[in-house]
Amino acid sequence: MSSKISISDSIEELSEQFVQLLVNGLNERKEYFHIALSGGSTPKSVYNYLSENYKSRIDWEKIKLFWGDERCVPPHHSDSNFKMATEYLISRIDIPSENIFRIQGEENPKEEAANYSNILLANIPAHESLPEFDLILLGLGEDGHTASIFPDSLNLFNTDAICAVAEHPITLQKRITLTGGVINNARQVVFLVTGENKSIIVDIILNKKDGFEKLPASFVNPDNGEVNWLLDRSASSLLK
Ligand code: 6PG
Fold first, then answer.
1. 30 CA to middle of ligand 1, Å?
2. Mutation probe of ligand 1 site: the residue of 42, 142, 176 with most atoms within 8 A of C-beta
3. Which residues line ligand 1 (CB under 6 A)?
4. Would the pTM of this model clear 0.90, i.e. be above it?
5. What is the pLDDT along the chain (240 residues), one digit of tens a residue?
6. Is the dihedral of CA 174, 178, 180, 181 positive or negative?
7. Which of 4, 22, 93, 120 has the least CB density, counted as fewest CB within 10 Å?
8. Rounded CA separation 12/35 (Å)
9. What is the whole-number distance in angstroms between the Cα of residue 8 and the centre of ligand 1?
């Protein structure tokens, strides 16, 4: 596993760095490129940059879109990661609808976790009998969570399940999430982290400070892949 840290002065620069990682990955793959999108708010500006500047410069037909996690809400709900990606990216690019694999947050969580696991197995080449994403985009919570693996569910890094039902520790909102095994089976993981409010957790994780070993994002170590941390100046302000 190789890990790189890039610090950008602007969201445009950070977004362009992400796009270069995406394009390089695309160019290396002859067949489809399988990417899991992240939710939350950080990716909005990156998706916006992508759709505004690369609408006609990327062969979207070569990309299959999945999600790293989804809130258990309908697709039109304001919390929906699918809704956010549709608003900032999907509705602005020419990607075939058959290339979009939405987690059905409106369905029974346990049933959808099983259903989406089967969808991943059926649509993504496997490595070591797990779906092997070409790129998994991740965010980072202030508590060190990533995807929807929260500190109280580190067991999701030690399960054979491909997707699992998770629960936000404060709101108790149910989520569907990729498990740690699938995340660590990816060819590439890209963390997008911005904002002063993430500086402490970034410092703890990247400098392995006290308690880092209890944080889900610390367990992201793809066996045969690379991790790229794309940070802005604020999120990296405590790194030396
Ligand atoms: C989600 C994400 C989650 C997110 C972090 C950071 O569904 O919310 O998967 O892991 O990336 O919570 O969220 P922000 O980008 O909003 O800070």
1. 31
2. 42
3. 38-42, 68-69, 81, 139-141, 145-148
4. yes
5. 789 999 999 999 999 999 999 999 999 988 999 999 999 999 999 999 999 999 999 999 999 999 999 999 999 999 999 999 999 999 999 999 999 999 999 999 999 999 999 999 999 999 999 999 999 999 999 999 999 999 999 999 999 999 999 999 999 999 999 999 999 999 999 999 999 999 999 999 999 999 999 999 999 999 899 999 999 999 999 998
6. positive
7. 4
8. 21
9. 20
The maximal CA–CA distance of the chain, rounded, in angstroms, is: 46
CA of 131 to the centre of ligand 1 (A): 22
Residue 210 carries which side chain, given as an amino acid letter? Answer: D
Candidates 3.40.50.1000, 3.40.50.300, 1.20.1330.10, 3.40.50.1360; correct CATH number of 2-232?
3.40.50.1360
Could you give the angle at the alpha carbon of 48 between the alpha carbons of 44 and 51, nearest 5°?
140
Q: Give Cα separations from 83 to 62, 157, 168, 227 (angstroms).
A: 22, 27, 19, 27
Q: Could you count the other beta carbons within 10 Å of the beta carbon of residue 167?
A: 16
- State both tokens at 166: 């998770």
d(CA 145, CA 22): 23
